[in-house]
Amino acid sequence: MRGADPRVVLGLHRSRHERRLLTGALDLGVTALDTSTNYLGFRSHQVLARTAGDLLPKFRVSTKVGYFPGRNGGEHCLDPVRLHAAVEQAAEGLGREPDLVFLHNPEHSLRDTAPHGRDMLARACSALDDAAAKGLCAAWGVASWDPSPLLDLVDPTTPRPSVLMVRAGLLVGAGALDAADALVRAWDLGDRGVWGMSPFGGNADAPVWTRTDPRVFLRDSSRFSRVQAAFRVAYRLPRVGSVAVGTDDPAHLGELVDALTGEVEERTVHEYRGLLRDRSRGQPA
């Protein structure tokens, strides 16, 4: 068994929640596990407790609240009472208090809510802050697929999360990257307080990873595959301390853990972000 490495978080979105995956992750030193109330058809917590309840104490478990069962599979809601109850239910379903609970995609309910959006976000964050204070979870954070709508809603009175989770990697556009950086500054979070997610845009086998060669971002590129390089550079787009990545294959997870030894060429990343900004402004590359 390898030593624990908190830079890789095993994400369970689209996962089958198999026990062999969790034991394989532990063998690789991956001891952070990320799920959500709405994963696996709103059954993730119960399935985890049933199939691997004895393993969960070995993980730092994070989950998310904000989506609730409803018509067409689910609905999003930032009502503080419902969010607080969801944290309670998460602890009950898992059989233990989560180490971290994220407010899940708050922008989903905050679009077109002016002039009430700022108050809605503050009250939702306060609900999770209160849950943590009561011991229902050890800490709380915000997971945002698109952080841009949040920028104008955060002020010094907004409760400060411990962790911000945002999309990371080569498929993230300039606007989302810049918005993530701005939100990190607004909440004064260091690298360890920022997680990346979806480093392959949802599919490490997508054709894009055979048409491009992310190894140009690494100093020692010959040692790694294209997928490994794409995963490694995700830690710099934007700058994050950990990346949540989903897989049902322990061997694939092992390849990604091995990629952490790669050294990123920071100048190339800087130039790449400049090209992204130029493209978003309609300027020639």
Q: How is the secondary structure organized here?
A:
Layout: E1 8-11, H1 19-27, E2 32-34, H2 39-42, H3 44-52, E3 60-65, E4 67-68, E5 75-76, H4 80-94, E6 100-104, H5 107-110, H6 117-133, E7 140-144, E8 163-167, H7 174-186, E9 194-197, H8 208-211, H9 226-233, E10 242-246, H10 250-258, H11 266-280
Parallel strand pairs: 1-2, 1-10, 2-3, 3-6, 6-7, 7-8, 8-9, 9-10
Antiparallel strand pairs: 4-5
Helix pairs in contact: 1-10, 4-6
Q: What's the pLDDT, averaged over the residues?
A: 94
CATH H-level superfamily: NADP-dependent oxidoreductase domain
Q: What gap, in angstroms, lies between the N and C termini?
A: 46 Å
Q: Tell me what portion of residues adopts beta-strand conformation.
A: 5-15%
Unreliable segments of 5+ consecutive residues? none
Strand count, sense and closure of the main sheet?
8 strands, parallel, barrel
Order of neighbouring strands in the sheet with most strands:
1-2-3-6-7-8-9-10
Describe this structure in words.
With 285 residues, the chain is α/β, with parallel strands linked by helices. It has one domain (8-280): Alpha-Beta Barrel (TIM Barrel). It is 38% helix and 14% strand. The chain has eleven helices and ten strands. The strands form two sheets. An eight-stranded parallel β-barrel has the order 1-2-3-6-7-8-9-10, surrounded by four helices. Strand 4 (67-68) and strand 5 form a beta hairpin. The longest helix has 17 residues, at 117-133. The chain starts with 7 loop residues before the first strand and ends in a 5-residue tail after the last helix. The mean pLDDT is 94.
